[in-house]
Design brief:
The chain is an all-alpha fold and 155 residues long. It is built from five helices and no strands. It is elongated and about 55 Å long. InterPro entries: DPS_DNA-bd (IPR002177), DPS_DNA-bd_CS (IPR023188), Ferritin-like (IPR012347), Ferritin-like_SF (IPR009078), Ferritin_DPS_dom (IPR008331).
Length: 155
């Protein structure tokens, strides 16, 4: 059955490309945050271990929301490490840095995701896709807030 939600196929595909990049950023940030949760050490251990757990759980749920929005637009969502690696701008961390470097990397990751979200909102708004714009506006606010909270730890 053809999709008839008021957004032409070409525009749905364009929005889905932006959403796929946001999904890749979200999933990459999820993996990094979860790894840091497992491997945090030092005097900030308890507070950061708990904070990172809250953050990776939020990112996990967000990834599902973004992927389901892509499917709502009748486009297949990326779902492999290689696809995410090509789409994301978030740098992978294969080592175990100290807690300050972890926090800095997470701030940077959330800021990158915020930039991706802004571009996605523009594309969705231009196409009249209020549903995607609304979803991504919530994601933007969450990435900005999380970056602020993490940045505050470093002052």
């Amino acid at each position: 059955m053809a999709v008839s939600i008021g957004i032409p196929k070409k525009e749905r595909e364009q929005i889905a490309k932006h959403l796929s990049k946001l999904l890749a950023d979200t999933y990459s940030l999820y993996l990094k945050t979860h790894s840091f949760h497992w491997n945090i050490t030092g005097p900030q251990f308890n507070s950061l271990h708990t904070m990172f757990e809250t953050q990776y759980n939020e990112l996990w749920l967000a990834a599902d929301e973004v992927a389901e929005r892509i499917r709502t637009l009748d486009v297949f969502a990326p779902g492999s490490y290689s696809q995410f690696g090509k789409l994301t701008s978030i740098k992978e961390e294969s080592g175990v840095p100290d807690w300050k470097v972890m926090v800095n990397q997470l701030v940077e990751g959330h800021e990158i995701a915020a930039h991706t979200a802004r571009q996605t909102i523009k594309a969705a708004s231009t196409a009249g896709d209020e549903g995607s714009a609304d979803l991504v506006t919530g994601r933007l606010k969450e990435h900005e807030k999380t970056a602020w909270m993490l940045r505050s730890l470093l002052k």
